[in-house]
Amino acid sequence: IPLLPLVRCPCCRVRSAVCLVSKPEQNPDRVFYKCPNHRNGKGGCNFFHWEDGEDSYVDYLSSIGVVIPCIDSAGEIEEQEHKVEQKAMKNVEKKVEKVEKKDEMQQILEKIEDLIGLCKMTLCVLWC
After folding, report:
1. How far, rounded to the nearest angstrom, does the alpha carbon of residue 83 sit from its chain's CA centroid?
2. Measured CA distances, 71 to 1, 75, 79, 107 (Å)
3. How far apart are CA 103 and CA 118, in angstroms?
4. How far apart are CA 59 and CA 81, in angstroms?
5. Are residues 5 and 62 in the same domain?
6. Are residues 55 and 81 in the same domain?
7. Is beta strand 18-21 parallel, antiparallel or unpaired with respect to 31-34?
8. CA 75, CA 69: separation in Å to the nearest integer?
9. Can you give the residue range of the structural domain that contains 120?
10. Same domain, 123 and 83
């Protein structure tokens, strides 16, 4: 699973980049990004970037303005997203509590107004 966003190929402008792992002895297990139409020589796209090193895929993404999340380990982004979701849920719960308290306060005010009305009627009956 690629950790970086896969963008549309700037050469053919049709296909999106793919993330692969090199198998040759020259660069074993090295991650790279390329257009599926990439060919060495004539007849294909020139889009190819190693994930690391000089002129990396990260450098390319930065040059076209793609925001790249900070990645320390594969699961850290998921953990951060989970924390953000938890924080958002707590905010929603707080807002719901405020609404419930507001409804409760509204009911109390209505009861107080009813009691004031009863007191006024009682006073009228006693004084008249």
Report:
1. 11
2. 14, 9, 11, 51
3. 23
4. 24
5. yes
6. no
7. antiparallel
8. 12
9. 74-128
10. yes
Structure tokens, 10: 């700037």
Radius of gyration of the chain (CA): 32
The mean predicted confidence, pLDDT, of the chain is: 80
Domain count, the chain: 2
pLDDT at 102: 85
3-class SS of residue 63: helix
My answer on whether 61 and 100 are in the same domain is no
Instruction: Give pLDDT tens digits for 29-76.
Output: 889 999 888 876 667 788 889 988 888 888 888 888 887 766 555 555
DSSP of 3-32, one letter per residue? Answer: SSPPPBPTTTSSSBPEEEE--STTSTT-EE
Instruction: Look up residue 124 and give its two tokens.
Output: 């009228």
Say which residue the tokens 């053919």 belong to. Answer: 12
Q: For residue 32, give the nearest of 20, 23, 44 by alpha carbon.
A: 20
What is the pTM for the complete model shown? 0.51
